[in-house]
């Protein structure tokens, strides 16, 4: 697998002026990305996650050529994004969360027709791609509706289609399932999985929905204060943060705390409902099977740890010196907060 995205020692520093008194302003520097290095192979689907303000969007903007790095080296498909932004635009697709690339007052189909002309997509290729995307993303009933009348979930599907009309080699996704219901989320995930398998599209996915990462990505990178904190498999991330999932169990009647055996433990009991915590890296199946066999079970559900909690725990454990030895990836030392 050849490296398709190369990030080598990249930095991004912003000059910020802050008011310190009447007619007085102080100039300070904010380091949004700090000595960041990683590579992504052609055809990989990689989760790129971190807390709010970690530098994820700044990284994506540099990879697309919107921002110029303050230092270091960037290459996407062998192209320097800052120097050849127009050339790169034909190789990439971008979905920036709640910032649409669609024309607000035009019907959805008119936005696609404009992109057809902007990207100079051959007519036959455009027609084939549009038909495929409309079918897979369920857009047929939305094409004649103005974008401003679409719900957030509908617009997100419309934006994903727009980003793929010109057959990009790499797709940057920022919260692609935000605002979608369970059925629509499953559709989008299936679509992205198929896109990657059939066309080998490289995908860099930023999301706070851990299920997006678990279902789509074999590799995850964690960034905090502009620095790489972890790069490896998702299971290693859970181990680094010692994160837990929660099994919510509804019994037929109120009973003493469930004895499920290690490593699960009861963390809360309210009448017939009990909450059991267990390691996020472990399968829930044995735990569910044991409870179903030994207790009068009515219903149950599994609650995933939110990504902020996973990262916070991972950073805490790395700071305590516990994370470096038990991850399957590459944990990094925590950042110096004074320079972040």
Automatic annotation (TrEMBL):
GO BP term (any one): response to antibiotic
Keyword flag Nucleotide-binding: yes
Annotated region (Disordered), positions in chain: 318-340
Keyword Zinc in annotation: no
GO-annotated molecular function: ATP binding; ATP hydrolysis activity
InterPro entries (alphabetical): AAA+_ATPase, ABC_transporter-like_ATP-bd, ABC_transporter_ATP-binding, P-loop_NTPase
Cellular location(s): Cell membrane
SUPFAM superfamilies for this protein: P-loop containing nucleoside triphosphate hydrolases
UniProt keyword list: Antibiotic resistance, ATP-binding, Nucleotide-binding, Transport
Record-linked SMART domains: AAA
Membrane topology: Peripheral membrane protein
Pfam assignment, any one: ABC_tran
Domain ABC transporter: start-end pairs: 5-250
Protein name, per record: ABC transporter ATP-binding protein
